[in-house]
Design a protein that fits this description.
The protein folds into 2 domains: 38 residues; 176 residues, Vaccinia Virus protein VP39 (Rossmann fold, 3-Layer(aba) Sandwich). Strands 7-6-5-8-9-11-10 form a 7-stranded mixed beta sheet, sandwiched between helices. It has a 4-stranded antiparallel beta sheet with strand order 1-2-3-4, with helices on one face. The chain has 7 helices and 11 strands. The protein is of the alpha/beta class.
Length: 232
């Protein structure tokens, strides 16, 4: 996802797919990058969310967590996006089961039907399953534990696309995430900007937490995205 400070020019992009949901508008657009690469981008309610050009932080969301657990056999991913976090999870042969919870049915459909070109290949992995649901409900109703819980459901607490997602970064929900982690399990939360209040909430729930800043390049402009990690 993109930080609020990043300028964005949508003038040269072409719409690929559009859907309406109770939360608003979800749009896929295609543009050509400065080096001539074909780039697919995702917007929600007019806000640039992510694209296929700069995927570092989505990949690191999974990579950092996978490095912390000896046997990450079961992984829960909150937020499908364009599938890069799931793709990195499935690249690890230790993973036996990866469940992705995505509230927007259109994103799931576009990944499955090839509107997102790499989608069918990612989802062909039989270890992966998609659940069309709200992450809060999915966590509350979870009947099994996970070695990793990876959350990328909004831009972070400082720049929400959907105000209702504020609860995802609060202690009550983070405590529920802790409860679905097995012993030694790891929770990682993505944020577009530094979120000291999120770090404090994680420390209150888990006893300790870590903030990582990751350098990214968006539209030739350097930015930083943040990961927040905590271990049960």
């Amino acid at each position: 996802m993109v930080s609020p400070e990043t300028p964005y020019d949508a003038g040269t992009s072409v719409e690929v797919a559009r859907a309406e949901s109770p939360r608003g508008e979800v749009v896929l657009r295609r543009r050509t990058s400065g080096n001539g690469a074909d780039v697919l981008e995702l917007r929600v309610n007019g806000v640039f969310v992510m694209d296929t050009l700069e995927t570092t932080s989505e990949i690191e969301l999974a990579a950092q967590a996978l490095d912390l657990v000896e046997e990450p056999s079961a992984v829960l991913v909150g937020g499908l996006g364009l599938g890069f976090t799931l793709q990195r999870v499935l690249a690890d042969p230790r993973v036996e089961r990866a469940v992705v919870v995505e509230i927007e049915e259109a994103l799931i459909r576009w990944m499955r039907d090839g509107t997102v070109p790499h989608g069918p290949g990612v989802l062909a992995d039989t270890r992966a399953s998609l659940v069309n649901a709200d992450i809060a409900m999915a966590i509350a109703e979870a009947r099994s534990t996970y070695d990793l819980v990876l959350l990328d459901v909004d831009n972070g607490p400082g720049y929400l696309v959907h105000e209702r997602n504020e609860a995802v970064y609060a202690e009550e929900f983070l405590r529920r995430c802790r409860d679905v982690l097995g012993p030694g399990g790891v929770l990682v939360v993505w944020s577009a900007s530094a979120a000291p209040e999120l770090l404090a909430s994680l420390e209150a729930v888990f006893g300790a937490a870590e903030e990582q800043a990751h350098d990214v390049l968006l539209q030739d402009r350097p930015e930083q995205y943040y990961l927040y990690l905590a271990r049960r």
